Amino acid sequence: MKKMFMATALLAVVSLAGAQVPANAPYGVKSGVITMSMDMMGQEMITETYFDDYGLKIAQVSEGGFGGQGKTRTITDKDGAQIRINDEAKTATKFPAGGPGGGMRAGRATSTINWNNLTDQVKKDNNIKEVGKETVAGKECTKYTMTIDMMGNQMEQTVWIYKGIQLKNLMSTEMGEFGQTCKKFEEKAVDAAMFTVPAGVKVEEFDASQFGGFGGGFGGGF
Questions:
Q1: Cβ neighbours around 118 below 10 Å, total
Q2: From its phi and psi, is residue 132 left (phi > 0), alpha (psi between -120 and 50) or beta?
Q3: What domains lie within the chain, and their CATH numbers?
Q4: pLDDT digits (tens, 9 = 90+) for 94-104
Q5: Exposed, middle or buried: residue 142 (CB in 10 Å: 0-12, 13-18, 19+)?
Q6: CA distances from 203 to 69, 91, 197 (A)
Q7: Is the CB of residue 140 less than 8 Å from the CB of residue 187?
Q8: Residue 160's beta-bridge partner residues?
Q9: CB of 192 within 8 A of CB of 182?
Q10: Is the pTM above the cut of 0.85?
Q11: Which residues make beta-bridge pairs with 203?
């Protein structure tokens, strides 16, 4: 009985150690699903972000909105390239790292910032200011403002962060304000298949010449 108790206690310690957040993890939550909503010219654009390993694995599922591409799933490979998958059509397109694969979604300018490990230097470099607390989708978020440069234009962006995760973002431009808001946040296990290309699906390299050099940046990735 004593040996069994010690073995159980040891297993608990090992499990706890394995659950520690990695130093470079962008999120403070192990895994889950974030459902975001955005108004696109009168059409609601829904994006579901699935994550695991504290945000080190990300898959974004988009449906509707400008471009009419239907439902697509976007993952990132080990080299930083994005792969957009249409599971229904069994097709996949690979976009180079930093390319147009992620689309021009709200919040893209802040996607490279690790909000879970926000240093004073990052705040200074990006003119980030903490402006208060606010609840979004039932989670208490820290609210930040920042000034970003997009195509030579200075724009102000506000983000609502929960444990490193953006649950809301709002960008102010000359054309008005646009952004995304979390409709539902679920902390739960995610199927590992969500982060991989299905067997039998051939990945095609993206050909920018087919889009006159624009790269289809508006498609599905908002």
A1: 17
A2: left
A3: 32-211 (2.50.20.10)
A4: 998 765 544 43
A5: middle
A6: 17, 7, 8
A7: no
A8: 143, 168
A9: no
A10: no
A11: 92
